[in-house]
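C-alpha cells in:
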C-alpha cells in the first residue's frame, strides 16, 4: 500500500543516499504528516529524472558513454511523449544507471541516520 508509512516509526524527513561509480546524489523526502511509501517512490523518480549537469556529464568515462547513450535512446523511445521531446531534454541521471533501475529497497544502519538506496 503506497499510503503506508515509509518506516517503522513516523518520519517527517528522510535523506536517501545513492552512489553509483562517480556519482553520489542525496534525495530528500519530506512530509509534515509523515513520509509515506508513495512519497519515497515519487522523490526517487523525480531525482533520477533531473537533467545531468555539464559537470556530471563530463565525469562519465568514455568507456561508459555508449551505454549511457543507449539507455538515453531507449528511454526517449519508450516515453509517453514524442521521442524528440525527451531527446531535447538531454541525458538525465537515470541514463547513467545503464539499465540498473530495479528498486531493491532502502537500508539504514542500526544507529539510524540517512538511508541508502539499493538498485
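Residues out:
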Amino acid at each position: 500500500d503506497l499510503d503506508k508509512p515509509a518506516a517503522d516509526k513516523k518520519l517527517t524527513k528522510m535523506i536517501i543516499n545513492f552512489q553509483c561509480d562517480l556519482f553520489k546524489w542525496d534525495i530528500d523526502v519530506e512530509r509534515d504528516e509523515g513520509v509515506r511509501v508513495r512519497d519515497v517512490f515519487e522523490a526517487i523518480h523525480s531525482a533520477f529524472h533531473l537533467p545531468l549537469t555539464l559537470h556530471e556529464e563530463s565525469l562519465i568515462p568514455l568507456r561508459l558513454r555508449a551505454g549511457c547513450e543507449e539507455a538515453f535512446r531507449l528511454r526517449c523511445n519508450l516515453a509517453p511523449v514524442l521521442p524528440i521531446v525527451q531527446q531535447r531534454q538531454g541525458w538525465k541521471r537515470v541514463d547513467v544507471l545503464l539499465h540498473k533501475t530495479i528498486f531493491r529497497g532502502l537500508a539504514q544502519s542500526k544507529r539510524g541516520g540517512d538511508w541508502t538506496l539499493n538498485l
